[in-house]
Design brief:
This protein is α/β, with parallel strands linked by helices. It contains 14 helices and five strands. A five-stranded parallel β-sheet has the order 2-3-4-1-5, sandwiched between helices.
Amino acid sequence: MNLSNSILPWQQKNWDSLYSYIKQGRIPQALLITGTSGLGKHALANRFATSLLCSNPQDNGAYCGVCNSCLLIKADTHPDLILIKPDEEKKSISINQIRQVVTDTYLKPQFDTHRVVIINPADVMTAQAANAFLKCLEEPTERTVFILITDKPNKLSATIISRCQKHSVNFPEKPMLYDWLREQGINDNQETLVNLLKSSILKTQHLTNHDLLKQRTDCFNDWLTIAKHTNHPAIISEKWQKLPETELINWLISWVVDLIKCTCRINREQLCNQDLAKPLQELSQQLDLKGLYKWYDLLINSRQRLGTQINFQIMIEEILVQWQELNGRT
């Protein structure tokens, strides 16, 4: 784990509240951290967990970074810090994963502080896993803290939510975000990046990832070739199959939303992808608004199918076939 004591500017109030638990010695059994995707919720949870486990925390709640606990956390080998996430080959958190956590919590923490279990994203626990976890919450064990992270708290049971201290990471005001971008050395296309972040199309850790941003531009150019009938959906879907699924679908959704805006002659400043405004405006002139809404519905339904057993490549090919049909013949 990459340790960092820095707090994103929009998380300061969240951190002050979390640190007050440590300062007062009143650590809750369970925390629920919610908010829009991409605002650094996991980084906030990691900082709280590390400060809680640190043997020599500083007066402001920062961890020392040099004690045995901090070094073990940095090496991802701390026995009292457990991260639960979906298995690589699956999209959900299984009951077996939760049962293992329950077994672990029957034992005392190996260090003198706490045991921290981070579940991210908590909303992908299967129904059986969620029930097993609820029993764990109902029978708390010594010095164990659960941190649940989710963008979709409505997918968690009301009973689980009621047993957690809730913290929402809110989207920052634009001036604060612009200042932060400048501090990261990002001065170009700030408006576009802010719009993508606000729409959960990018995450804060991706803003300096030029490879990902280039992928987005390359995908947009591929998408245009389908519209111009100079490429085949099967070829592009095969090319796209290894891209991050959620990001790709979100890019497509943002482009069609901007096309609808262009068709309705909404000002360029209202577009999400302002750096792509010219080709979007040109493309919108040849498209039927009713067809765009139909294709938008297809994308929304496709996003809901992510995480199931659907073949992603086939799904993308179907999307691109309908996109090509929408553009007619040139």
